[in-house]
Amino acid sequence: MEWIELPIKKTGDIVTGNTPSRSEEKYYGGNIPWIKPEDLDTDFYIKTSSEYLTEDGAKKARLLPENSILVSCIGNIGKMAIAGCQLATNQQINSVVPKDEYDPVFLAHSIKYSLSNEKNINIALVSILNGGDFGKVKVRLPKTKNDQKRLGILIQNKLVKIEQMRQAALKQKEAVEALQGALLREVFPFKEGDELPKGWKWEKLDKIFEEVKNQVQPYEDEFKTLPFIGLENVVSHTREYTDEEYNPPSSTCFKFDETNILYGKLRPYLNKVYLPTGKGKSSMELIPLKTKNNYSREFLAAVLQSEAVIGDTVKFSTGGRMPRADLKKLKKLEVAIPSDVSKCNELGITVSNKIKEFIDLNKKALTQLEAIEALPAAILREVFEFNKN
Question: pTM for the whole thing?
Fold first, then answer.
């Protein structure tokens, strides 16, 4: 099979979209799709959009025929779709209206490959690809349209199967992520107003924990030696630590040790709870707590991560854009727990062990998903690099 290489502008007309005047309400709200980058990469053939133009708006836009190839060329360069009907785009999209001798499906895949291939264009250093530069990007195709169609169908069939695999992997990952919430609902099944069975009681949180207000100042020698944990180092929902980069603290920090729990005060809906294994210092948004009355750290962590406590904490937060938990109100909350402290602590251990299992399952699901999401690029590399002269 003979292959050819040519710039995109030789394969068809290049059309850069536009935005009809926003001040004219009569241009918007019709039934003609007006595509923006966020509409791309959802379906290979695109027929719907988040906004539509009226007939009047379409007269001010640049209408594209069915089978035009739409490519985002600002920001996330290379998002793509084929027009499944007549439509228009905004100025962040360059489109190709293919000549008759080029199959739009294969040409779309060739453009996708070329834009992801840094040997052709260093996308990593480009945030805007104007129509002129877009047209200069070279693509490779079989010389005959029949060969283009044949390969295009093969590629598309493989990509459809991969998308089915990806959707299945996404559902699996979502199911795994839902396990922790389901577990905590099972462990703490009662809501305010419920009549509790024998062996359960309502308990205020200030009977379970207290704040640790020990602080360390930048001028103290200890400040330099204690390891730092910031809010960004605690992974939401999982109690895990991540080596996220942060600016070294230069102001007052809390001190903590292995008997404490670190609780994320800022944006409490993020559900950040961490059980440290040694001494350290934390940001003022990551508050050290200590259990009381023989309750375990594991049990306190489970209580703080329960839906009822998170919901009430969010409700009583202060601040708008950056809400913070109100610790005084948090400590006044009542939760339904077993009357026997030892049973509470057994529950805490059970929850901690299960969360570790869920984290491992989630990592496996994520690894599987990432492997599947890498397959489309691998298929394109196989087609275009294997067939190089």
Answer: 0.77
